[in-house]
Specification:
Elements: E1 6-10, H1 17-27, E2 34-36, H2 42-47, E3 58-63, H3 65-69, H4 78-102, E4 106-110, H5 120-134, E5 140-143, H6 160-166, H7 172-190, E6 196-199, H8 210-213, H9 222-236, E7 240-245, H10 249-258, E8 269-274, H11 279-290, E9 297-301, H12 304-313, E10 318-321, H13 326-334, H14 346-349, H15 351-357, H16 371-375, E11 380-385, H17 391-400, E12 416-424, E13 427-440, E14 443-451, H18 460-474, E15 479-484, H19 491-498, E16 503-505, E17 515-520, H20 521-525, H21 542-546, H22 548-552, H23 561-570, H24 574-583, H25 586-591, H26 599-611, H27 630-644, H28 650-653, H29 660-673, H30 677-688, H31 692-707
Parallel strand pairs: 1-2, 1-3, 3-4, 4-5, 6-7, 6-9, 7-8, 9-10, 14-15
Antiparallel strand pairs: 11-12, 12-13, 13-14, 15-17, 16-17
Helix pairs in contact: 1-7, 4-5, 6-27, 7-24, 9-13, 11-12, 26-29
Protein name: Carrier domain-containing protein
Pfam family, one: PP-binding
Domain Carrier: 595-671
Length: 708
């Protein structure tokens, strides 16, 4: 667990940001706390080495233009704009001085102008001045907004009441968004960044399977194009982009050739591993070629099985499972924190070209077994005779399966057809394979033996053959024969046959085109899957290969993919962040379940549980007894005003009677007192029109809701 202490200074009351910052530190597994400099003491705190900021591991400075130089609007006098420019220069100088003295990362965030007092023009001028003044200083970053978390509705950003009452200018929603943006930027500065992004193709770059649908059959719609744009941004920022796909390389290249207008092309791809080896092995091969450690890789794939295989075989790689829907996948990439880069240099932008021109290979790091991984898949293969309900699927498989279609057949003409249903611990694949057989003397001949590439390489094909061997043996047949006809696409089928203890025999009228691979029934029944132990060899110079192991050192710890995926899929907006913060406080739910509390009391209890150090356990608990103070009081008052539309009197709040029961009573009384005469008259007229029975029913309903 890493350690960091955040020091925060602001030109306004920013303490409500603390809860959200602490939430993110916990979410990222980072030890440390958040400390705030005194109110509106930005410059003294930056220039004093003994201040909260001088002792912090990272510094965050929050400013508003209106706080630094007043309200500067469009067409303002030169002296007003000059004052704002001078403030920007002074602040940049103080930030550089503090960062150089402390040797810690500094971040300044220019926060939105208040609707009543600030101006967009002043905000833009201050932001531009700071960006320009600090553009060459890598120790100080400038955050110009809370994107991509900033609420779209301005009313969800500003809290005029809390600003007027306690100089707390923003809502809980905006503080949650700002904290996310701040921590995300700091993480980009303080943690190692991956150098290589490796993307799957089928289901990631396009919809469909190119090996079955063909280069013209895959679909790259507008939402899928957004994924390409996100990856193109990674290339532009200096990351190496590689492809890793279980396909024929010529098919993948053809997709690129037929879509020349996509955001990136093959010239932007540093290296490819398109074939049928395990993807973990492919990634090791890429690392070997690029002379980079696996801990600098991010792997993106939509398949949970492929992701699990890579996590098992290459735990150093940050392996991320992409959502299957294109729009969700694009959003996932936008919220994938490890893909952020705090700064991009000219050298970064040249990195892809440099690697393409100077590819080097190192000595293989050794052999890797996949046996343990496949043993944990809990693969369940069910092979049954095909029924009428399978007719359409069997025809589709015969028509569309290419890579693992032993005979390349498109028609089924055997005496019996068996369909193959597969599932594992990740889910149900459905019917993915079939065999079409007939009996010929002492031989069970399979004219069709095919399997969708979705499950290829996991041992399904071996169980299909073992099923035929057992079937032949049970029927008193001596042999099993598999028809094979080479095609442009069925290299995986050829590779499978090469592992079998089979002899090749000509047979029938198609002997010139079709070879029959014949096994004894016993050998076929005994076939089992043995994951390949394939070393990755280097063809580079010997001196380069020898330097490989020292580059990586001891194996890296497993990458924190679960936290990255959780953030990229669940914590993508302020409402979701606030919900997660509430869920992290177990006392909140307990407080809301106190028996006998009225609806208003229950709401107050829930808020106090969220705001205070200790959760209330009774409606008679007092605000200050639970750790309340003036800032929390302002936050509570703002919630009351937003939810119930009333302002609480100070003479009620700063007394010993400031309990849940008393404040709930005041809220209810004020709601009634502030109800307009016209509204009351309308209510009385409505009551006058009701019968005694209807009034009794309303009263009883009100009592029941109050007791609930």
């Amino acid at each position: 667990m890493s350690k960091i202490a955040l020091g925060v200074a602001a030109t306004f009351t920013a303490e409500p940001l603390g809860d959200a910052l602490r939430f993110w530190l916990a979410e990222l597994g980072t030890e440390g706390d958040v400390a705030f400099a005194p109110y509106d003491q930005v410059f003294p705190s930056l220039l004093d080495p003994g201040s909260v900021l001088g002792r912090a591991g990272a510094v965050v400075v929050l400013v508003r233009a209106e706080d630094l130089a007043g309200n500067v609007t469009a067409g303002a006098a030169d002296k007003d704009t000059a004052a704002l420019d001078a403030a920007a220069d002074d602040l940049a100088t103080a930030l550089r001085t503090s960062a150089a003295a402390a040797g810690t990362p500094h971040l300044v965030a220019v926060c939105p102008a208040s609707p009543g007092h600030g101006s967009p023009e002043a905000h833009a001028r201050l932001t531009g001045g700071l960006v320009e003044a600090l553009k060459d200083d890598r120790s100080v970053g400038v955050l110009t907004s809370a994107e991509p978390y900033e609420p779209a509705d301005p009313e969800a950003v500003h809290d005029a009441f809390a600003d007027r009452t306690g100089n707390v200018p923003y809502t809980d929603h905006y503080f949650a968004a700002l904290a996310a943006a701040v921590v995300r930027r700091l993480q980009a500065v303080t943690t190692p960044r991956p150098k290589v992004v490796v993307a799957d193709c089928d289901g990631t770059l396009w919809d469909g399977v190119v090996g079955e649908d063909g280069p013209d059959g895959v679909v790259i719609g507008p939402e899928r194009e957004e994924i390409w744009r996100e990856l193109a941004r990674q290339v532009a920022a200096g990351r190496l982009l590689c492809l890793c796909s279980k396909n024929e390389e010529k098919d993948v290249r053809e997709v690129f050739a037929r879509h020349p207008g996509l955001p990136f092309g093959l010239d932007d791809v540093t290296a490819m591993r398109v074939g049928w080896e395990a993807k973990s092995q492919a990634l090791r091969s890429l690392a070997d070629e690029l002379n980079l450690g696996l801990d600098s890789f991010v792997f993106l794939d939509d398949s949970p099985v492929e992701c699990a295989e890579v996590r098992a075989g290459c735990p150093e790689v940050l392996t991320l499972q992409m959502p299957t829907a294109a729009a969700d996948a694009a959003a996932f990439l936008r919220h994938c924190w490890p893909l952020d880069l705090a700064a991009v240099t000219d050298a970064d932008r040249e990195r892809t070209r440099r690697y393409q021109e100077e590819r080097r290979r190192e000595q293989a790091r050794g052999e890797m077994s996949l046996a343990d991984f496949y043993a944990t898949l809990d693969l369940r293969v069910t092979i049954t005779p095909a029924g009428p309900e399978h007719e359409a699927r069997a025809a589709q498989l015969a028509e569309r399966t290419n890579q693992f279609n032993l005979s390349g057949t498109r028609r089924l003409d055997g005496d019996e057809t068996f369909v193959v249903d597969v599932r594992d611990r990740f889910g149900d694949y459905g019917v993915v394979g079939l065999t079409d057989v007939r009996t010929d003397g002492d031989t069970l001949r399979a004219g069709a033996f095919l399997l969708s590439c979705r499950t290829l390489g996991r041992g399904v094909e071996h169980r299909m053959l073992a099923h035929l061997g057992a079937l032949a043996r049970d029927r008193g047949l001596a042999r099993v024969a598999l028809a094979f006809r080479p095609t442009e696409r069925n290299q995986p089928a050829r590779d499978f046959l090469a592992t079998l203890p089979a002899t090749i025999e000509p047979y029938g009228e198609e002997a010139a085109e079709t070879a029959w691979h014949v096994l004894t029934a016993a050998d076929a029944a005994a076939v089992v899957h043995s994951p390949a132990h394939t070393p990755v060899h280097s063809s580079g110079p010997a001196e380069e290969r020898a330097a490989g192991p020292a580059r990586i050192g001891s194996a890296a710890a497993p990458a924190g993919w679960a936290a990255v995926e959780r953030i990229a899929t669940r914590l993508t907006g302020p409402e979701a962040i606030l919900d997660a913060m509430r869920a992290a406080r177990p006392a909140t739910a307990v407080a809301a379940e106190v028996a006998g509390a009225t609806p208003v009391e229950a709401t107050v209890m829930r808020w106090w549980a969220e705001l205070l150090d200790k959760p209330p356990t009774s409606v008679n608990d007092g605000f200050f007894e639970l750790g309340g103070h003036s800032l929390r009081l302002v936050q509570f008052m703002a919630r009351v005003r937003a939810e119930f539309g009333v302002e609480l009197p100070f003479d009620t709040l700063y007394t010993t009677s400031f309990t849940i029961a008393e404040v709930a009573k005041v809220i209810e009384e004020r709601q009634l007192a502030e109800t307009g005469d016209e509204e009351l008259a309308g209510l009385l007229d409505e009551l006058a029109g009701l019968s005694d029975e209807e009034i009794d029913a309303l009263l009883e309903s009100g009592l029941e809701s109050g007791n609930g």
